[in-house]
């Protein structure tokens, strides 16, 4: 009997974040936007990639390469850059998160800040699922914006 009560309580606790997100689209938007910004700010950290991408990820790069989470994690396990050396950074603009209960779609403009002070732009879109109380990306598509179209979006 006590085991059954414990199991019910455990399932209720695990389901609570799912129910909260399903009922509050703003909470979903805020959570996913924060997740994206943290991921981009610490993009060279393998732990961020492990957290961000789902095990069953299908990632299509701007060059048309299709990758899995295992492929990405393998790339992250290579030689590390010297932390004292400058590195490229990334940010997101024009973020739109559309919640659908425990599923969400995201689109945004990725800005790649290069070491020479320039910026390159990409349009990214993805699908996230809420699993075990965490949002993770299951599909991702990146498209490079042609240089002639790289002007900032009007607000």
If you had to describe this structure to a student in words, what would you say it looks like?
The chain has 155 residues and is an alpha+beta fold. The protein has a single domain (24-77, 85-149), classed as Roll (Nuclear Transport Factor 2, Chain: A). It has 4 helices and 6 strands, in the order H-H-H-E-E-H-E-E-E-E. The protein has helices at 2-23, 25-41, 46-52, 69-76, and strands spanning 53-60, 66-67, 89-100, 103-113, 119-131, 134-144. Strands 2-1-6-5-4-3 form a 6-stranded mixed β-sheet. A hairpin with a 2-residue loop joins strand 5 and strand 6 (134-144). The chain is globular. Residues 4-16 have low confidence and may be disordered.
Keywords:
Nuclear Transport Factor 2, Chain: A; globular; 155 residues; 6-stranded mixed sheet; 4 helices; alpha+beta
H/E order of the elements?
HHHEEHEEEE
Proportion in β-strands: 35-45%
Strand order of the largest sheet: 2-1-6-5-4-3
Q: What is the strand tally?
A: 6
Q: Helix fraction?
A: 25-40%
Structural class: alpha+beta
- Rg to the nearest angstrom? 18 Å
End-to-end gap: 59 Å
Describe how the helices and strands are arranged.
Blueprint lengths: L1 H22 L1 H17 L4 H7 E8 L5 E2 L1 H8 L12 E12 L2 E11 L5 E13 L2 E11 L11
Parallel strand pairs: 1-6
Antiparallel strand pairs: 1-2, 3-4, 4-5, 5-6
Helix pairs in contact: 1-2
């Amino acid at each position: 009997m006590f085991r059954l009560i414990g199991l019910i309580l455990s399932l209720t606790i695990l389901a609570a974040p799912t129910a909260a997100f399903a009922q509050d689209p703003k909470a979903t938007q805020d959570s996913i936007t924060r997740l994206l910004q943290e991921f981009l700010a610490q993009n060279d950290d393998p732990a961020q990639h492990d957290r961000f991408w789902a095990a069953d990820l299908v990632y299509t790069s701007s060059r048309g390469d299709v990758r899995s989470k295992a492929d990405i994690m393998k790339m992250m396990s290579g030689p590390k850059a010297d932390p004292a050396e400058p590195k490229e950074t990334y940010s997101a603009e024009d973020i739109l998160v559309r919640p659908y209960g425990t599923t969400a779609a995201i689109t945004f403009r990725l800005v790649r800040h290069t070491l020479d002070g320039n910026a390159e732009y990409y349009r990214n879109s993805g699908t996230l699922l809420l699993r075990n109380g965490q949002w993770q990306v299951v599909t991702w598509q990146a498209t490079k914006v042609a240089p002639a179209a790289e002007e900032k979006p009007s607000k």
